[in-house]
Amino acid sequence: MGKLRGYAFFCELKAVASVDITENCGGTPSGVSVLSQLRHQIKNNMARLVAIQPKQPSFSALPSSHSDFNGARLISSIQYKRRPCQPKGALRVTASSAKKILIMGGTRFIGVFLSRLLVKEGHQVTLFTRGKAPISQQLPGESDQDYADFSSQLLHLKGDRMDFDFVKSSLSAEGFDVVYDINGREAAEVAPILDALPNLEQYIYCSSAGVYLKTDYLPHFEADAGDPKSRHKGKLETESLLVSRDVNWTSLRPVYIYGPLNYNPVEEWFFHRLKAGRPIPIPNSGLQITQLGHVKDLAKAFVQVLGNEKASKQVFNISGEKYVTFDGLARACAKAGGFPEPEIVHYNPKEFDFGKKKAFPFRDQHFFTSIEKAKALLGWKPEFDLVKGLTDSYNLDFGRGTFRKAADFSTDDLILEKKLVLQS
């Protein structure tokens, strides 16, 4: 009982000391006087104190979480900030993780999922678009209430990013903390944004694994050479611009992205043929190895680099965990959509003149990257394996009868007709 009274007395002294010293910690005489009196009291009562614990630093808890696309919490952690000693009369302010964020683009595919995560994290999100499309759309399977909550918080800045004078004036007036550049293709489009926001905390760029120089040694790592003649050279030049400027930047390089609302004919190309019960024409052996990453995993990676010191001035490959052959991808799409085992027809592209049409949606080569850097530094890991991700895409998009491009089997017919001639 004596121990408890002694410990309680000590805690009471600590509480008094905390209040008085905090109020007078600016070095005033009253602060020194109070501190001396407290030390004297503690010394005189040492005999009464049995359990004495050292005074702990003051902490404030800041919740930080990553939310998924239906509102469930993915990661829950507590960050601790040491509370600084402030002069008498100063307002005690707790640092907030909420940011004023601008997304360049954001009305389709990647931005649709990224903006939801950022809003659920408590950030103020503004989309910069030309205003030709609605700034928000309800996701497949999203409740009316969830969509209403999201869309009511989303802000819009209408303009053309190629109008550099408007970009500079409008962005400098707003003073954003962070920019997510989802649709930037050329360095010239990025420089005005950096000029307009001299106090920018972070510029997060969506680059592409297409910047890598073709090589016999795979997978591609972030330090591999870039191809200055690539059709993605503008993204490579943008990364070089970011390096040259005094700005905190992060660049993500996805490989092939898939998932609901995909405007590129990736999985949709296969689903059209599977639904029609047609053979799937694949160039050459079909053993070419490639890599796909789900859009939701990419969106989560974009959130995890935000304010992350380990992501400062870094490039990260972002894609799926495993690689897949072209033939394996056709079979995975069939499994995801509940279709029978597909008939696969191989052909030599050099034997055909397809004109400007693209007969196959992937580059005819081995093309895949290592994602180990993102896993090690960011703690990021893909949630979706390939079949699970393709199933998610099919169920929430193509399987509902929605798609971006209508089926075009004209190049398929050229290939199949030649196959029939050779067989006869």
TrEMBL record:
GO terms for cellular component: cytosol. Residues 101-318 form the NAD-dependent epimerase/dehydratase domain. Gene3D superfamilies: NAD(P)-binding Rossmann-like Domain (3.40.50.720). InterPro entries: Epimerase_deHydtase, NAD(P)-bd_dom_sf. This is NAD-dependent epimerase/dehydratase domain-containing protein. SUPFAM superfamilies: NAD(P)-binding Rossmann-fold domains. It holds the Pfam family Epimerase.
